[in-house]
Amino acid sequence: MSDNLVLEPGASVASTARTDAPPAILMDRVNKWFGALHVLRDVTLSVALGERVVVCGPSGSGKSTLIRCINRLETHQEGRILVDGTELSDDVRALDTIRREVGMVFQSFNLFPHLTILENCTLAPIWVRRMPKAQAEELAMEYLTRVRIPEQAKKYPGQLSGGQQQRVAIARALCMKPKIMLFDEPTSALDPEMIKEVLDTMVSLAETGMTMICVTHEMGFARQVADRVVFMDRGEIVEQGAPADMFENPKTDRLRLFLSQILRGH
Amino acid sequence: MSQTTMDPRLLRAPPKRKLRLSWADERVRGIVWQVLVVGVVGAIAYWLWSNTVHNLEVRRIATGFGFLDREAGLPIGESLIPYSPTDTYLRALTVGLLNTLKVAVVGIVLATVLGTLVGIARLSRNWLLSKIAGVYVEVIRDLPLLLQLLFWYAILQALPGPRQSLNPVEGVFLSNRGLKLPWLEWQDAHTYALLAFVAGAVGTWLWARRATALFLQDGKPRPVWPAALGLLVGLPLAVWAAFGAPWTVDWPALRGFNFRGGLTMTPEYFALLLGLVLYTAGFIAEIVRAGILAVPKGQWEAAQALGLRPGAVLKRIVLPQALRVIIPPMTSQYLNITKNSSLAVAIGYQDIVSIANTTLNQTGQAIEGIAIIMLVYLTISLSISLFMNWYNARIALVER
Amino acid sequence: MSDITLDTAVAKAPEAAPRTAPLSQIGLAGWLRANLFSSWINTAVTLVVLYFVVRWAIGFIEWGVINAVWSVPDNQSQACRDIKGVGACWAVIAEKHRFILFGTYPYEEHWRPALVCLLFVGLYVVSAMRRFWRKELALIWIATLTVIGVLMWGGVFGLSYVPQERWGGLPITLILATFGLAFAFPLAILVALGRRSKLPAIKALCVLYVELIRGVPLISLLFMASVMFPLFLPEGMNIDKLLRAQIAIILFAGAYLAEVVRGGLQALPKGQYEAADALGLSYWQKTGFIILPQALRLVIPPLVNTFIGFFKDTSLVLIIGIFDLLTAGKTAIIEPAWQGFGVEVYLTVGAIYFVFCFAMSKYSQGLEAELNRHRVR
């Protein structure tokens, strides 16, 4: 892993997707409603092990709901979701297994304010993976070093900047050694100058071959890292494909419009 | 943040300003204002004081606490310590203080339990349950406590007499003489068994701590419940058996016009406790609800996403954060229960206020009587405030 | 970062029609399922709660309506005694309501305290409306309180004189609460400012006052007012009991309100203080024009909550024998004919207290929501 990675436009990360292995995530005609509002409409999506998928789309298009269904922070009402071969259901044990294998990073960091950075990272390894404390701390320090904030380990989240907090959140999720990482708009709550430090961390994570699903508006990141871009609008997957294809030759008006608005927005 | 060494030129102490005797000087104004206010307050205090001294002389009332050693001659209905009307005022007041503490401590425990339950019920996803809890909280908080006490007391007094008393369960009688419960005939064996239980509780706590420490070392979970079962149930039972396992129940029974035996809860104590608990629980429910709502949804989600089970999420993430919000207002509710228990005087429960009031009526020592009441409550308030300051300092979240 | 929404009119790409949710999730059935029967444990809770609610409601209706006695021929409470425990005796209210509301005020003059109560309510309503939050409000208060004084005492404009000892019931409760509030509030503001003052002696005095009062129960202050106060005054000078209790209530409420006001002063951003200083305003100008208007607005909801507490607390004057609403209720059932009908009387008196407190509580919630909306915008 390169320690001082520089983001150059176009310098893309080599694909690590393994299409021969069983898919890491399989969603089959998933439907979900909030009350009468149809938020996921027949969503079918397969993500291979090691694949990096970027989900984009206008706000309210259901992209956050989609990835929150993967670790059952939201429950779907129709269709099937298989994570690493285990089907999501009311079965608590299956859910436990899946949540251990799936790490998640939130838009608003959600670090635990009453625990130090180190304790944030060791909490789940100790109480879920039953790792001895000393070993968990060693592991946490290793990941904190990777996200380049080992010196903040004894501080509390409230003492860190937004970018630092988000990097801690990434380290915290990695400490569980997940097979799949979910990112729910990880840079949306950050000031512009902090976005890059978080994106750098995500790029270097992508280089390790981690299976990643990222909901983000960062098209530069998508171009550089993603094996595939999925465009959602009004609860359905409208278009998907390689980033270059998608961005240069959008097939649908909806994607074209979205891209033009994104570019104007920046 | 940065602790770089400062330029020595920047470390010079600021020059001391000389006091100018002019109205334009802010500090002169400050001093004048202070002298003025303290002077006025002092003058009023002195005027009241001299009036009081004069009035006491005219009425030939001797001041001082000498009356405490005199025979009280006032009957007290219920007491935790042996008491007879021939005892001194000091002992009567002690009985009153103990009665205040008896209702306050029991009330605090019950109100916390009920209030927490109602607060959680208000957050329940069950619409009916949460609405009912909401109505309870709104109604109970919008009625004066004194009215509620009188209401409960009126209901208890409207109950039939001992001869027609309600008898919902064998040995339990509810009548206008209060609540009667069967009770063990207390013997030494029971005292030792109780001590064994306390020792067992301490032992369980120590073992739970040790188990956590060991778990943190090697990651092997050690169940606490077998030890807890042995220490909390087995040990007291063994001690009790070792002393011959005495077991005689003292059943309340009707003798003539009243009950004999058993454990008694007087209507006064029962009404006061009921009123205080129901009233305070309404406030505690709101505190608990606000505390739980104060923990953002994202905290639950992040903990769940890490694979923590709901119990662990509650114990390690939600409760530690919610308690920070809950404890300070909760302490002031505890203080309120203690202060509100003084309403006992309205329904004839003899707490410290009631007995001090009788004392000052009998002896004419108004100032001393009220001073005693205030001193007792100030001591309680002050100790609770000190605890709260200590606790707040301990749990304050570290922010930048 | 930027949230992008697509304009529906422009996007012409084919789109799957939204399906409605399965029937089990919307409509009444969906609502019932989600809120009452979402799991077996939830269903069990619903059924148990429903059972108790229905049973209790039926019991209450039977007692309070079906089996109740609504009136009896003058003071013959035998009919009530016969159904005691089975039905309510509302006859005690029919018989005693004038006494409970107005105490021993001369019967034929009851329109005066009734009008006073209406005036008080009107005053509260006007004060609650935001468009009347102006300086003129103080004048309205002074005028109304004067009219109330004239009506209660009489002796002028052809009204017969009614000594204060004969006042009682609801007007007393409203007088204690309103005058208590009117005087405690300015006191509270001064004390709160004093507690934030940089002058150590003033600060110490205010801290002492607030902590002393908040550390003791209101009863002890009322006892002090009724027993000790006469000792404090020069020989021969006497203040009547109602006024003494009123002073105790003002001192008590002042301390609690001061803490609420202090919360508002603390919550105000430091920049406001600095801006006022930068304008070169004097302390009193700064406080009066810049700080207080904003700080008080911040704490209106907790202020109203304190008012509610304080309105309820006026009932404690019962203990020192002042004839307020609760005392009137308690006295109404001392008469042998009506002894033992406390439950009915206290329910009625409670309903009156509830109307006032509930209105204030709803008002405070509405205001809080409105102020929050304002802040978000």
TrEMBL record, chain A:
Origin: domain of life: Bacteria
Protein name: Amino acid ABC transporter ATP-binding protein
PROSITE patterns: ABC_TRANSPORTER_1, ABC_TRANSPORTER_2
Similarity field: Belongs to the ABC transporter superfamily.
Pfam families cross-referenced by the UniProt entry: ABC_tran (PF00005)
UniProt entry keywords in alphabetical sequence: ATP-binding, Nucleotide-binding, Transport
Source species of the chain: Craurococcus roseus
Domain ABC transporter stretches: 25-259
Membrane-spanning segments: none
GO function terms (MF aspect): ATP binding
UniProtKB/TrEMBL annotation, chain B:
Limits of the ABC transmembrane type-1 domain: 97-388
Pfam family, one: BPD_transp_1
Domain of life: Bacteria
Record-annotated membrane-spanning stretches: 30-49, 103-123, 135-155, 189-208, 229-249, 269-288, 370-391
Coiled-coil segments on the chain, per record: none
Membrane protein topology class: Multi-pass membrane protein
Chief localization: membrane
Cell location: Cell inner membrane; Cell membrane
Keywords of this entry: Amino-acid transport, Cell membrane, Membrane, Transmembrane, Transmembrane helix, Transport
The family this protein is said to belong to: Belongs to the binding-protein-dependent transport system permease family. HisMQ subfamily.
Protein name as catalogued: ABC transporter permease subunit
Species for this entry: Craurococcus roseus
Lineage, opening ranks: Bacteria, Pseudomonadati, Pseudomonadota, Alphaproteobacteria, Acetobacterales
UniProtKB/TrEMBL annotation, chain C:
Subcellular location per the Swiss-Prot or TrEMBL entry: Cell inner membrane; Cell membrane
Main location: membrane
Any matching Pfam family: BPD_transp_1
Top-level taxon: Bacteria
Transmembrane portions of the chain: 40-61, 110-126, 138-162, 168-193, 205-233, 245-265, 345-363
Membrane topology: Multi-pass membrane protein
Keyword entries, A-Z: Cell membrane, Membrane, Transmembrane, Transmembrane helix, Transport
Classification via InterPro entries: AA_ABC_transptr_permease_3TM, ArtM/GltK/GlnP/TcyL/YhdX-like, MetI-like, MetI-like_sf
Protein family according to the UniProt entry: Belongs to the binding-protein-dependent transport system permease family. HisMQ subfamily.
UniProt keyword annotation of Transcription regulation present: no
Native source organism of the sequence: Craurococcus roseus
Protein name: Amino acid ABC transporter permease
Keyword Transmembrane helix: yes
Domain (ABC transmembrane type-1) ranges: 170-364
